[in-house]
Write a structure and sequence with these properties.
- By secondary structure, the chain is α/β, with parallel strands linked by helices.
- It is built from 4 helices and 5 strands; from the N terminus they run H-E-E-H-E-H-E-E-H.
- The protein has helices spanning 2-25, 53-62, 78-87, 109-119, and strands at residues 32-33, 44-48, 70-73, 96-99, 102-105.
- It has a 5-stranded mixed sheet, with helices on both faces.
């Protein structure tokens, strides 16, 4: 009886975890860029790679904000990987985020939003909108 329950719980966990890994690693529609040359250097750029739990955590938390940003997969863009190494002491440490050209390595969501408030306040939700949002 107990082994059947444990088996069901274990299988449920594996299925849920697998689904979460798939969803968390998908680029968000409208945010993925295939090349570093096409990103907005005055905006927010999140450099990430598949399988990175820190990237998944930051990207998942950003999905619940209305912040405008783009995502670049460093495994698909050699130029982006080179950029990340240049700001992360030669390592491909991700997530690396730029806000108006200022790089941060592995920032928290609050550190990222604070940097946006300082360097690119026009990207914050509610700015420039006549109704709604915070401003």
């Amino acid at each position: 009886m107990i082994s059947g329950v444990l088996y069901t719980v274990a299988i449920s966990f594996v299925v849920f975890y697998s689904m979460w890994m798939i969803v968390a690693n998908l680029p968000r529609r409208g945010r993925a860029r295939t090349s570093l040359t096409h990103v907005d250097r005055e905006g927010v750029v999140v450099y990430w790679r598949p399988g990175c739990k820190y990237c998944m955590r930051l990207r998942m938390r950003l999905r619940f904000t209305r912040l405008q940003y783009v995502e670049v997969n460093i495994w698909r863009d050699g130029e982006a990987a080179t950029f990340v190494r240049s700001v992360a002491d030669g390592n491909e440490t991700v997530p690396t985020v730029t806000v108006a050209g200022k790089a941060m390595v592995n920032p928290s969501k609050s550190q990222l939003l604070e940097a946006v408030e300082t360097h690119a306040p026009h990207l914050l939700p509610g700015t420039g909108e006549p109704t709604g949002g915070r401003g």
